[in-house]
Amino acid sequence: MTVKNEDIANFFSNVKTMFSDTKLSQSKKGIMSVSNIPDMIDPSTPLKKTHSDKPGSQRTNIIYLNTDCNLRCEYCYESDSRNGLPDQVKITTEEINNFLLEICDREKGRISTIVLMGGEPFLNFELIEYIMLKAASLTESKCGGWGMSIISNGTLFTDKLLTRYKELIDIVSNHQVFIAQEVSYDGSGQYRRKWPNGSNSKEQVEKGMQKLIDYKIPFKISYTVHIGNYKNLTKDIIYILEKYPKPYHYRITVGYAYQELDGLLGSQESYKLKDAFRPYACELFDIYKVPICGNTCGYCKECDQSTFVGNSYLSPTTGVSYDDKNTKHDFQQW
Question: How many angstroms separate the CA atoms of 73 and 194, rounded?
Answer without folding.
Answer: 5
